[in-house]
Amino acid sequence: MKVNKIALAIAFVLPVVTMASGGEHHNVTMSNSDFWYRVLNFTIFAGLLYYLIANPIKGFFKGRQERIANQLREIEAKLQASKDEAKAAETQLAANKAKAKEIVADSMNEAKILAENIEKKNEDVLASLEKQFDEKTELESKRMAKETINKLLEEGIKSDDIAIDNTKVVSLVSGKVA
After folding, report:
1. 154: which DSSP letter?
2. Spatial distance between the Cα atoms of 123 and 115, rounded to a whole number of angstroms
3. Cα pseudo-dihedral 11, 12, 14, 15, rounded to 10
4. By Cβ atoms counted within 10 A, which residue in 7, 8, 39, 65 is the most buried?
């Protein structure tokens, strides 16, 4: 097909080139010049050129226009997808901020509860320790009093002291205890 077009173009262009005359010098006017023949030849040449090249050029530009339109559609689709993703991200961000505030509030409440529990346990342990201290102090004072009485009885009362009266024993015990 391409060879036929080339051959057809040569068939029309070659006679025009070979038949062009020139050599003599005459007074050239519009009526005795070859101007109209040249215009006719150029019109035929332009018509053939248009006939041979018009469809491929139209096809090229139409294909290019379609490719550009497809690319534009793809870009618009990507842009819309990006906008949708941005909206989804903003929604997710708002939800995450609310969740973060909720978590912070929950952790504050939990920290208060834990602090109160620890304080209560410490108070209970402190009260228990104070009670144990009081009991041990009382027990130790009783043991000391008992030891003092036993020591007094062992050392303080001898066979010659048997005649001691109650007031004397009380005063001896009071002296040792104090």
Report:
1. I
2. 12
3. 110
4. 8
